[in-house]
Amino acid sequence: MRYFEKTSNPEEERDESETEEQEERGGGRIKEDETRKITGLATMCGDVINYLLPIMPHPKSLSRIFLIAGVPVQTIKSSSNIKPTTGLNPNILFRECLMGSVLHLSSSSGHLTVVQILVQAGAQLDVLDRAQNTPLMLAVLEGKNEVVNFLIKAGASVMLKGMGGMTALHLATKSGNQQACQHILAIPNLPRDFIDTKDDGGWTPLVWAAEHSHAHIVEYLLSKRANPFVRDAEQNIALHWSAFSGCAEITELLLNLGSDPNSTNLYGDTPLHIGARQNMYDCVLLLLARRARVDLKNTAGELALDCCVSESSECFKAISLNIMLRDIVVKTLERTVHILTNDISHGKEVNPIQCINWEDDEGEPTDYVYVSTNCFTSYISIDQTITSLQSCRCTDGCTSTDCRCNTISLGCPYDNMGRLVPDFNYADAPMVFECNQMCACNRNRCVNRVIQKSVTEHVQLFRTRSKGWGVRMLRPIPKGTYVCEYIGDIVHDVDRYIGEAITDVEADHREDDSYLFDLDNKDGETYCIDARHYGNVSRFINHMCVPNLIPVKVFVDHHDLHFPRIAFFANRDIDTYEELGFDYGEKFWIIKSKSFTCDCGADNCRYSKTTITQTLENYLNRLQEMDRT
């Protein structure tokens, strides 16, 4: 590849000197530093043009390229003295342009032809200038979407982060450039959580669009399953930012998708607090109409009414009227929801898990330690040698049957959205072997890494009417979605397992074993996960005879078959606020039926007060039949 540089011409220099003297006499002298800047840029433009002149059928059509980054045509006196040489590098950085290259300039100016030639000449696509912008980012900011499309197809990275940790998608949503968003999100095999990438402030592209009132961008991102519940560094969700911007259209979109109008941030502010503080009347009215509470105080002890800019403001009047109406209307049938804590995990999970109670006076459960990974209270030997791991060498995202990990899983278990594939055997779930640290596949693009990534679904711990604590979804999820993992203390089952060998006396006097999950090893020693003293939110998931979750044995860090991880997946579509449940199994109820019975309410419940006797008889008959055979 040959590059070009402008050759010296003494006659030309004398002409330029005379021109400058004339301009000075006329009062139009250009400052010396500006002249150097423009001349440097013009030289590069001329170099590109002289390269194109011999090979383009219509050289005159290239005259528009002289206007790179606003360079005046008259500053380039002639192209006849510009000769092809071997010295000029297309990746030269210009101090006058924030240490950016000509590709930065041509991208921001939208000169697609120049961009194409520079890329063919070897210009680097992902160079960051002093402002931490790549050529793609500049094209996005300036709305040069033809250039955006070309750079993406040429291989420019959309995952690279610039100033403040912002990607090109952050910049597109912030500037309201929907076409750029579409170009970016049309890239195949993007990581499924790319759309929710956080910048240094914890803000997602959706948050930037909400803050800047780009309703069309918000609607588009939500249609692409952007998560409106992601919290930033100060625990704000997108609804807080839409209230801040005052865009009622965005606020309504977020509320319609289940955003909680009473969600609090790090300072205890609800969206209503923020809307009142910013005097955003339309948003305040909408939040009040969607049952935003006016009695919640932030950490400074302020009600939303106290945050209004003045008592004469429309927001103050609206909130005051709402308070009066709520005082007048005695809601005897409505139970008061008490938010006991905004996060039972105390920051150990990516998404906070709120705990609420509207049934009784029970407080937040504190009789256990919240842990986000399995733990041990006694020594147990697990084969975690790295050489025992089977691994793949995939380059296609691990979607093919050639993937070694998929082969030992009896087929690829997940689709591109991270859900169980449609033909997954929900009735008798096979073991799943996810890609591991020995695999050569790209972690960000591999679809066979689901439970090893952070849980993105939002759940809530709530007090049920008759079953104690329960867990429910805060947004609808489709069948096959990974919900959470059963976490606890891995123990031997010799003395603690709920099985046939345990006598009634032992069952009556043992410590609460309702939190045991049998790992069901077929041979050798067997083990359980005990979530009684150490566990995560899954310890509160109740039994259902018609469950909406199934447990799947998954292996990630090792292939010791005695110690699978237990992952819960949705076995059908689950609605917002629907309680989660899985089948505890017959052995659990055979032991526990003396203490309590099932209250799931299913038509075919086998362990309720009215059906448990028949279930026990059937169980004993099976045992007798087995003894005879």
UniProtKB/TrEMBL annotation:
Q: Where is the composition biased (Acidic residues)?
A: 12-23
Query: Which Gene3D superfamilies does this UniProt record tie to the protein?
Result: Ankyrin repeat-containing domain, SET domain
Superkingdom, according to UniProt?
Answer: Eukaryota
Compositional bias of kind Basic and acidic residues? 1-11, 24-34
Q: Residue ranges of the SET domain?
A: 457-585
Q: Where are the ANK repeats?
A: 101-130, 131-163, 201-233, 234-266, 267-299
* UniProt keyword annotation of S-adenosyl-L-methionine present: yes
Read off the InterPro entries from this record.
Ankyrin_rpt (IPR002110), Ankyrin_rpt-contain_sf (IPR036770), EHMT1/EHMT2 (IPR043550), Pre-SET_dom (IPR007728), SET_dom (IPR001214), SET_dom_sf (IPR046341)
In this chain, the stretch annotated as Disordered covers 1-34
**Protein keywords:** ANK repeat, Chromosome, Methyltransferase, S-adenosyl-L-methionine, Transferase
Occurrences of domain Pre-SET (ranges): 390-454
Tell me the Gene Ontology biological-process terms attached to this UniProt entry: methylation; negative regulation of transcription by RNA polymerase II
Q: Name one GO cellular component term.
A: chromatin
Provide the protein's localization: Chromosome
Principal subcellular localisation of the protein = nucleus
Molecular function, one GO term: p53 binding
Q: What is the protein name given in its UniProt record?
A: Histone-lysine N-methyltransferase EHMT2
Please report the organism this UniProt entry assigns to the protein.
Answer: Timema cristinae
Supply the source organism's classification. Eukaryota, Metazoa, Ecdysozoa, Arthropoda, Hexapoda
